[in-house]
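Q: Structure tokens for this one, please.
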Amino acid sequence: MDNKDLANLIFPDVRDYKYYEEKYKSRNLSEGAIVTRFAPSPTGFVHIGGIYQSLIAKLMSKDNGVFFVRIEDTDQKREVEGGTKQILEALKDFDLSPDEYIDENNVDHGEYGPYKQSLRKDIYQSYAKKLLEEGNAYPCFCSSEDLENIRGDQEKAKERTGYYGKWTKCRNMPIDMATQKIKNGDPYIVRFKSPGNPDKKIKHKDAIKGSVDFPENDQDIVIIKSDGLPTYHFAHLVDDHLMGTNMVIRADEWLASVPLHLQLFYVMGFKAPKYAHIAPMMKMDGDGKRKLSKRKDPESAVSYYKEEGIPKDSVLEYLMNIANSNFEIWRKQNPDKSMYEFPFDLKKMSVSGALFDMVKMLDVSKNVISRYSAEKVYNESLEWAKEYDKELAEMLSNKEYSLKVLGIERGNAKPRKDIAKWSDVKNIIYYMYPEKFAKNIEFEYQKITDKDEIEKIVKTYFEKYYNESDDKQTWFDKMKDLAEEFGYAREVKEYKANPDAYKGHVGDISTVIRVKITGRSNTPDLYEIMQVLGMNEIKSRI
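A: Here is the predicted structure, written as tokens:
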């Protein structure tokens, strides 16, 4: 018996790996084109970090490259029903749909599928057989109890744990003995026979982290589990080779696996892709920082943004700020350009972890929404409200009127920036709807508190000064005339220059009118509000 006989015994019916080499031809790419992927597990939870990673992948592949999704479901205990659909819908929601993928019905969209690992079992076994034939893999019969004993002995000896060197109980088992065990039905897995020496170093240049040195890998890792499916380490090697991946963008928790992965590519005789390890998103916790956690932080779940009504544009713009800090300046200089026109640079990404700040995200979102048209604000807030806020949806049912309300202070040089998410909208606009406005309560008028004076100001303004057909400048000039009549400065600067000469200034007068009409001391442009409400509604309120 030799290695070939052993390989045939373990994998008697798989195709020769050369069949797959021929089937999956090299991609016909232009020079410099990036092929990369997002490779999530269908566990039912899509982390915002997955959207971040996919955004980076999309940016890197935008110039004639390919961004594909591969579902890594070899750990089937963690898989949830509909997990693949949730992943694809999340990407679609953020305009990050891949070029190639497998849908929820296991239909491949692309020529390098299946894009789901559980459907590629024969492919992995074909390449594992190659390793067995070449003596670079072997069957291991160690039970979980054996492995626990090995670990205990290592800890007693104060040596690093793992299956390597002198601890590899099955590595040098004679082929005849291994053959007999398999024929006897003894359970086993297949391990990679590492040629590494941990006393030697490998030099690796990561696309984000730069030059990193590692000891060589000497762990004989499992490549095929007892159920015949591969481990992540082996599956990613085979898949990225056959799918033509030339850049792996992934979380930096995998950085320590680089020596193993490079070694696997080398032993298989494949060209390794470049690696780009993205630092985790961090969050302030007291005086320190920690990773954004799906257990502690609701904003770690992609579903959170939909529920809160934070537009996808806002989330992506904020993630761009995290990815490259110079994006914020670029955006101010290029407010109307697509973010994909930004000269994104992996080398400018944080190597230690960017701070994820929801306050900052909402500030970004206010800027994003301020650039929206009234029509877009209306359509998106209504779509959100239909699912999450029936009262708001009912308020918005009068489209013509709602467009006027949402159009206040929009589309000008300094648009309103009071909406950060669609769940804000109801509270921001409710006073514009007659049926929602509370008419019989005491409002806070700020500086002017004398009730008699308030009533005189309001009565005089509407009897003597207000004309619905006035343009904005005429309207404001009349507000100044009103101020002067009641002993208030026409200009704020006049009041500041000589405060003892006046009761206050025109801003105090306009606040009285604003509060009387809206119930609020801080609103968008009062002139526009009054134009939208109309004289009949204003009279009803005063």
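A few notes: The longest helix spans residues 526-541. The chain has five domains: 3-12+121-278, 32-119, 288-370, 374-432, 451-541.
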